[in-house]
Design brief:
About 35% of the residues are buried. This protein has 4 helices and 6 strands. It has helices at about 10-30, 35-50, 80-90, 140-155; strands at about 50-60, 60-70, 75-80, 95, 115-120, 125-135. The model has no long low-confidence stretch (mean pLDDT about 95). Bound molecules: methionine sulfoxide.
Protein backbone atom coordinates (compact mmCIF):
# COMPACT_ATOMS: atom_id res chain seq x y z
CA UNK A 1 0.00 0.00 0.00
CA UNK A 2 2.52 2.61 1.11
CA UNK A 3 4.89 2.02 -1.82
CA UNK A 4 2.04 2.38 -4.30
CA UNK A 5 0.88 5.74 -2.97
CA UNK A 6 0.47 8.22 -5.82
CA UNK A 7 -2.08 10.86 -6.73
CA UNK A 8 -1.07 12.76 -9.84
CA UNK A 9 -4.16 13.52 -11.92
CA UNK A 10 -7.04 15.92 -11.45
CA UNK A 11 -7.71 19.40 -10.16
CA UNK A 12 -6.42 20.54 -6.80
CA UNK A 13 -9.85 19.83 -5.27
CA UNK A 14 -9.91 16.33 -6.75
CA UNK A 15 -6.43 15.59 -5.46
CA UNK A 16 -7.34 16.82 -1.98
CA UNK A 17 -10.56 14.76 -1.94
CA UNK A 18 -8.72 11.59 -2.91
CA UNK A 19 -5.88 12.38 -0.54
CA UNK A 20 -8.23 12.99 2.36
CA UNK A 21 -9.75 9.51 1.93
CA UNK A 22 -6.32 7.91 1.69
CA UNK A 23 -5.10 9.75 4.78
CA UNK A 24 -8.17 8.59 6.70
CA UNK A 25 -7.51 4.98 5.72
CA UNK A 26 -3.77 5.16 6.46
CA UNK A 27 -4.20 6.81 9.88
CA UNK A 28 -7.39 5.07 11.06
CA UNK A 29 -5.65 1.99 12.40
CA UNK A 30 -2.71 3.81 13.98
CA UNK A 31 -2.94 5.46 17.39
CA UNK A 32 0.55 6.98 17.54
CA UNK A 33 0.34 10.70 16.69
CA UNK A 34 3.95 11.00 15.49
CA UNK A 35 3.50 8.09 13.08
CA UNK A 36 0.35 9.67 11.70
CA UNK A 37 1.87 13.15 11.39
CA UNK A 38 4.84 11.61 9.56
CA UNK A 39 2.65 9.88 6.99
CA UNK A 40 0.44 12.95 6.50
CA UNK A 41 3.51 15.13 5.90
CA UNK A 42 4.77 12.61 3.35
CA UNK A 43 1.46 12.20 1.52
CA UNK A 44 0.84 15.95 1.21
CA UNK A 45 4.44 16.58 0.16
CA UNK A 46 4.48 13.83 -2.48
CA UNK A 47 1.09 14.75 -3.92
CA UNK A 48 1.64 18.47 -4.38
CA UNK A 49 5.42 18.77 -4.64
CA UNK A 50 5.65 21.37 -1.89
CA UNK A 51 9.02 22.72 -0.77
CA UNK A 52 8.56 21.91 2.93
CA UNK A 53 5.68 20.13 4.66
CA UNK A 54 5.62 19.43 8.36
CA UNK A 55 4.37 19.80 11.88
CA UNK A 56 5.42 21.82 14.89
CA UNK A 57 4.06 20.65 18.26
CA UNK A 58 3.34 22.84 21.28
CA UNK A 59 5.67 21.58 24.02
CA UNK A 60 6.27 23.51 27.25
CA UNK A 61 5.01 26.77 25.80
CA UNK A 62 6.80 26.79 22.47
CA UNK A 63 6.52 25.20 19.05
CA UNK A 64 8.97 22.33 18.59
CA UNK A 65 9.77 20.78 15.22
CA UNK A 66 7.91 17.54 14.53
CA UNK A 67 7.68 15.13 11.59
CA UNK A 68 8.37 16.83 8.24
CA UNK A 69 9.44 16.38 4.63
CA UNK A 70 11.90 18.77 3.03
CA UNK A 71 15.07 20.61 3.97
CA UNK A 72 16.46 21.28 7.44
CA UNK A 73 14.21 23.55 9.52
CA UNK A 74 14.43 25.66 12.65
CA UNK A 75 13.58 23.59 15.71
CA UNK A 76 11.82 26.01 18.07
CA UNK A 77 9.43 28.90 17.46
CA UNK A 78 7.99 31.20 20.15
CA UNK A 79 4.31 32.06 20.39
CA UNK A 80 3.52 35.08 18.23
CA UNK A 81 6.75 34.76 16.19
CA UNK A 82 6.80 34.07 12.46
CA UNK A 83 3.85 32.69 10.55
CA UNK A 84 3.72 29.54 12.72
CA UNK A 85 3.78 31.36 16.04
CA UNK A 86 1.22 33.88 14.78
CA UNK A 87 -1.19 31.14 13.61
CA UNK A 88 -0.80 29.55 17.05
CA UNK A 89 -1.42 32.84 18.89
CA UNK A 90 -4.46 33.73 16.76
CA UNK A 91 -5.82 30.18 16.64
CA UNK A 92 -6.52 30.54 12.95
CA UNK A 93 -5.10 29.52 9.60
CA UNK A 94 -2.77 32.02 7.95
CA UNK A 95 -2.14 32.11 4.20
CA UNK A 96 0.92 34.09 3.13
CA UNK A 97 1.09 34.67 -0.65
CA UNK A 98 4.53 36.32 -0.40
CA UNK A 99 6.63 35.51 2.65
CA UNK A 100 8.77 38.62 2.13
CA UNK A 101 5.67 40.73 2.80
CA UNK A 102 4.87 39.03 6.13
CA UNK A 103 6.44 41.00 8.99
CA UNK A 104 8.50 38.67 11.17
CA UNK A 105 8.43 35.73 8.78
CA UNK A 106 11.06 33.19 9.88
CA UNK A 107 13.08 32.17 6.82
CA UNK A 108 14.12 28.60 7.51
CA UNK A 109 14.89 28.44 3.80
CA UNK A 110 15.52 31.29 1.37
CA UNK A 111 13.73 29.28 -1.33
CA UNK A 112 10.36 29.50 0.39
CA UNK A 113 8.10 32.07 -1.30
CA UNK A 114 4.60 31.37 -0.01
CA UNK A 115 3.26 29.54 3.01
CA UNK A 116 0.18 28.27 4.82
CA UNK A 117 0.02 27.46 8.51
CA UNK A 118 -2.98 25.58 9.95
CA UNK A 119 -3.43 25.35 13.72
CA UNK A 120 -4.44 21.97 15.16
CA UNK A 121 -6.78 21.95 18.14
CA UNK A 122 -7.47 19.57 20.97
CA UNK A 123 -10.64 20.83 22.59
CA UNK A 124 -10.02 24.59 22.61
CA UNK A 125 -6.23 24.51 22.77
CA UNK A 126 -3.80 24.70 19.86
CA UNK A 127 -1.56 21.66 20.31
CA UNK A 128 0.35 21.78 17.02
CA UNK A 129 0.47 23.49 13.64
CA UNK A 130 0.78 22.15 10.11
CA UNK A 131 3.20 24.33 8.14
CA UNK A 132 3.58 24.10 4.36
CA UNK A 133 6.01 26.13 2.26
CA UNK A 134 6.08 26.54 -1.50
CA UNK A 135 8.89 27.64 -3.79
CA UNK A 136 6.33 29.68 -5.76
CA UNK A 137 4.43 32.83 -4.87
CA UNK A 138 0.69 32.57 -4.15
CA UNK A 139 0.46 28.79 -4.02
CA UNK A 140 -2.16 28.58 -1.28
CA UNK A 141 -5.81 29.66 -1.24
CA UNK A 142 -9.07 28.86 0.53
CA UNK A 143 -9.22 25.42 -1.13
CA UNK A 144 -5.97 24.43 0.59
CA UNK A 145 -7.23 25.96 3.82
CA UNK A 146 -10.53 24.07 3.70
CA UNK A 147 -9.00 20.65 3.00
CA UNK A 148 -5.97 21.03 5.25
CA UNK A 149 -8.18 22.07 8.16
CA UNK A 150 -10.30 18.95 7.60
CA UNK A 151 -7.25 16.70 7.25
CA UNK A 152 -5.70 17.84 10.53
CA UNK A 153 -9.07 17.68 12.27
CA UNK A 154 -9.49 14.07 11.10
CA UNK A 155 -6.16 13.21 12.76
CA UNK A 156 -7.64 13.76 16.23
CA UNK A 157 -4.24 14.37 17.75
CA UNK A 158 -4.12 13.90 21.54
N1 LIG B 1 8.44 30.13 7.99
C1 LIG B 1 7.95 29.67 9.26
C2 LIG B 1 9.02 28.93 10.02
C3 LIG B 1 9.03 27.46 9.80
S1 LIG B 1 9.74 27.01 8.36
O1 LIG B 1 9.08 27.63 7.22
C4 LIG B 1 9.77 25.36 8.17
C5 LIG B 1 7.44 30.84 10.09
O2 LIG B 1 7.61 32.00 9.70
O3 LIG B 1 6.88 30.59 11.14
Amino acid sequence: MAEDFKISAGTKEEKYRELQLMIRSVTAGESDPIANMANVASMLHETFGFWWTGFYRVIDGELVLGPFQGPLACTRIQKGRGVCGTAWARGETIIVPDVNAFPGHIACSTKSRSEIVVPIFHDLDVIAVLDIDSQHFGTFDEVDQQYLEQIVHDLRLP
